[in-house]
Amino acid sequence: MMAFQKARQPLSLSQVATAAGIDRSAAQRIVHSLQKLDVIARDPADRGYLPGLRILDMTHDLLRLNPMLQRANPIMLELRRRVHERVDLSLFDDVRVVYAVRMPSKHEIFSATLVGHAVPTYCTAGGVAILSKLPDERIADIVGRSDLTPFTPHTIQSLAEVMGEVKATRERGHSVLCRQLLYNEVAIGAAILDAEGNPVGAIHVAGSLQEWTADSFSESFGPLVENAARTVSERR
């Protein structure tokens, strides 16, 4: 199933085999078995294979059974009502964070509305907020294993830059990053902690630099994001 992560269109059997690192006959057997379970399906236009509807069933189960996401939902709704900007919750997954709750603003591209979308930890508001709660050695390890290919001319590209953002986040209480994934975007984030104080996710708010400066966005919404993340975090 990992073969579909970076696909931009349905995959042929040969493409599935190449992406999965297996031979075509093995791919054919696996795809056939997964088709029987509705985990993989043929594209309606017969252009190849797609994830099947059972994936949505499993996604629904993950979202509805996760205690943290259950706690977060009313808090996220209230935060979205107050900020009138895009509000997201992402889950920490080593070198990446994965969007689990997305509440779009008025103008969003399609990908910005999808749960399950993953972005790098090292250069995103949610990711840097999470990193700020980790030891420096762990941060260096995560950055060292990350793909540092920039998304914009302003994307962070070194450990020194990441540590600079982490230091500022620790002092401020929330992250503030501009033009990292999208050229005109400003985003702030605060980490969600488990009962032992380990970061497990983050709440973040994103807006447009055509409407906000980084400072005004941080001053307006930083305390709200921090409070939301604290409320969702587990207590000892």
Shape: globular
Characterize the biggest β-sheet. 6 strands, antiparallel
Beta-strand segment tally: 8
What's the CATH class of the largest domain, please?
A: Alpha Beta
Strand content: 15-25%
The CATH topology of the largest domain corresponds to Beta-Lactamase
Q: In angstroms, what is the radius of gyration?
A: 19 Å
Q: How many DSSP H or I helices?
A: 8
The secondary structure category is alpha+beta
Note the gap between the termini.
37 Å
Q: Report strand order across the widest sheet.
A: 5-4-3-8-7-6
Order of helices and strands: HHEEHHEEEHHHEEEH
Overall average residue pLDDT: 91
Low confidence ranges: none
Structure in words:
The protein has eight helices and eight strands; from the N terminus they run ααββααβββαααβββα. The chain has 236 residues and is of the alpha+beta class. The chain folds into two domains: 9-57, Arc Repressor Mutant, subunit A, CATH 1.10.10; 66-232, Beta-Lactamase (2-Layer Sandwich). The chain has a six-stranded antiparallel sheet, with helices on both faces. The two termini are 37 Å apart.
Write the layout of secondary structure elements.
Elements: H1 13-20, H2 24-36, E1 40-42, E2 49-51, H3 53-65, H4 67-83, E3 86-93, E4 96-103, E5 118-120, H5 125-131, H6 136-144, H7 159-172, E6 175-178, E7 185-193, E8 199-208, H8 214-232
Antiparallel strand pairs: 1-2, 3-4, 3-8, 4-5, 6-7, 7-8
Helix pairs in contact: 1-2, 4-8
Give the key terms.
236 residues; alpha+beta; Arc Repressor Mutant, subunit A; Beta-Lactamase; 2 domains; 6-stranded antiparallel sheet; two-stranded antiparallel sheet; 8 helices; 42% helix
